[in-house]
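Please predict the structure of the following assembly.
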Amino acid sequence: EDQVTQSPEALRLQEGESSSLNCSYTVSGLRGLFWYRQDPGKGPEFLFTLYSAGEEKEKERLKATLTKKESFLHITAPKPEDSATYLCAVQAGTGGYNKLIFGAGTRLAVHP
Amino acid sequence: EPEVTQTPSHQVTQMGQEVILRCVPISNHLYFYWYRQILGQKVEFLVSFYNNEISEKSEIFDDQFSVERPDGSNFTLKIRSTKLEDSAMYFCASLSGGTDTQYFGPGTRLTVL
């Protein structure tokens, strides 16, 4: 069964304190791995898609990396506005239109 | 920037009543989805829709659920006889077909009493 596990469940950082979030997955035929940000009471907001091991994507203070078994979301010098839940999702099979399978997310709180 | 919209933002209903949740996907998108998120739990796939028919559905999407694209812009999720356990945030998403990115709406919070 396709599965996504995220750790830690919650993370508290001081502003400027860099860290990494982990997403490990088991999926039969990974097509893509997606990172989304979710603010309380809102819908997931797309951040990155990764397709193959060794791939990296960056956006502002965030960098996502992918290996054959896991992905990391590195947050460099975070600010309070980076506080949110970060969701990892995988897409299996060959179709880019296939469903997403989500992990439970990591709740990030960045304090000034 | 184009975005997915959903109405209402919050729906309160009595158990056994029918509800219709509405979504307006991004205008040139071809694939449409419903997901739900029970409070404190994962986002779960319900159904995908393409070319006016269901492409895939999950075990959650039983006979009480249906989807429709009644015109060129709206995409709806109907729950015929709501149960307490249907209380959740329901998210609509759409995808253009030219990329793999599903864009999500802000959600409808459904509360079944």
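Chain B touches chain A at residues 4, 31, 33, 35, 41-45, 48, 50, 55-56, 58, 89, 91, 95, 97, 99-107, 109 (CB under 8 Å). Chain B has a mean pLDDT of 95.
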